[in-house]
Amino acid sequence: MNKQSFLSILAASIVIASCGKKDDKSAQAGGAPQVKEYKTLTLQSQSATLNTDYPASIQGQENIEIRPRVEGYIDKIYVDEGAVVKAGQPLFKISAPEYEQQVRTASASIKSAQAQVSTAKLAVNKVRPLVEKGIISKYDLESAQYTYESAMASLAQANAALVNAKVNLGYTTVTSPVNGVVGSIPFRLGSLVGSATAEPMTTVSSIGNVYAYFALNEKMLLNLTQENEGASLAQKIKKMPAVSLLLSDGSEYDQKGHIETVNGLINTETGTVNIRARFPNPKGIIRSGSSTTVRIPKEVKDGILVPQSATFELQDKIFAVTVGKDGKTKNVNITKLENTAGNYYVVTSGLKPGDQIVLEGVASLKDGSEIKATNVSAETVYADLK
């Protein structure tokens, strides 16, 4: 190797070494940890409504079995299953000719009795002047008067028989006793029915108001009654808030209901107590026997509400991440109410007004992590509570 080649190799080595040092410095400068930006919220007291849902079954205010008062064959059916009827509206016609005959017989008996009354009255009027003149004895007058009174009694009896016959004839037209909805009709034209028939002709459910029946366990019942003022259970029930009804499609019924009764006995097998709430049903939308959900609201005032997305769970505990004035994070264990306010936890311990919490990516933050906090307004975070 000549001197010139050696110098060329040496110069190249110096250049490569120089570039390597520059790259190391650049790498060191680029590898310095950067402070990441996170959205945060400064907690303030909030008001919210907590909802608790309970499965419920619906019963009409009145479920009346329609039974015939007289025996006969069904001649006409005026309504169909599911029809909305009014009180007094005909439902069935029972063919019973004997009751029509009884009316005709009673009417004829009245005419006969009226004729007897007229004859007896003429006899009294004929005898009275003769007795007054002493031509015949008072005995004849008294006998005529007794005959007249007997005829009057027969007339009254005939009138009563006619009324009774008309009542029985009226029973051949079966009417609805209340406003409501017709249930199933197991009988068809020509079926023989009577008062001894085991199965009713149909059922009419009065649904102007409907009852929702649901159950609470002992703890829920205790909480519900303790939250309302009153010296007695009846007074506490009156103070309970209006409740909502969720229909089978998940939509909320447009009428509010009220809890009316709480069963006095707790079912020892299930540990629950039955509760009844009444809902107005002016449009007849809700039908007896349907399944729904009763929603009971609870108002929370001056509570600490934390978005569920701003928490994480670890070993059956829930944590939120706070940010100190030095910009470093701290994982805080929180406790909450069982019910949620939509997508928010109602915190009972672990956080207080004025604390700054991280809103996103909290599961990846460790204690002492340094972040750049970008505070978000409470109005933006809690917008869906309004």
In short:
With 386 residues, the protein is an alpha+beta fold. It has helices spanning 3-30, 97-132, 138-170, 218-226, 233-239, 378-381; strands at 36-42, 45-66, 72-77, 84-85, 90-95, 173-175, 180-182, 192-193, 202-217, 244-246, 258-262, 272-280, 291-307, 311-314, 317-323, 329-336, 344-349, 356-358, 371-375.
Provide structural commentary.
This protein has helices at residues 3-30, 97-132, 138-170, 218-226, 233-239, 378-381; strands spanning 36-42, 45-66, 72-77, 84-85, 90-95, 173-175, 180-182, 192-193, 202-217, 244-246, 258-262, 272-280, 291-307, 311-314, 317-323, 329-336, 344-349, 356-358, 371-375. The protein has 386 residues and is α+β, with helices and mostly antiparallel strands. Strands 2, 4, 7, 9, 10, 11, 12, 13, 14, 15, 16 and 17 form a 12-stranded antiparallel β-sheet that branches. Helix 2 (97-132) packs antiparallel against helix 3 (138-170).
Key attributes of the depicted protein:
386 residues, alpha+beta, twelve-stranded antiparallel sheet, four-stranded antiparallel sheet, 19 strands, rod-shaped
List the helices and strands and how they pair.
Layout lengths: L2 H28 L5 E7 L2 E22 L5 E6 L6 E2 L4 E6 L1 H36 L5 H33 L2 E3 L4 E3 L9 E2 L8 E16 H9 L6 H7 L4 E3 L11 E5 L9 E9 L10 E17 L3 E4 L2 E7 L5 E8 L7 E6 L6 E3 L12 E5 L2 H4 L5
Parallel strand pairs: 1-19
Antiparallel strand pairs: 1-18, 2-9, 2-13, 3-5, 3-8, 4-7, 5-6, 7-9, 9-12, 10-13, 11-12, 13-17, 14-15, 15-16, 16-17
Helix pairs in contact: 2-3
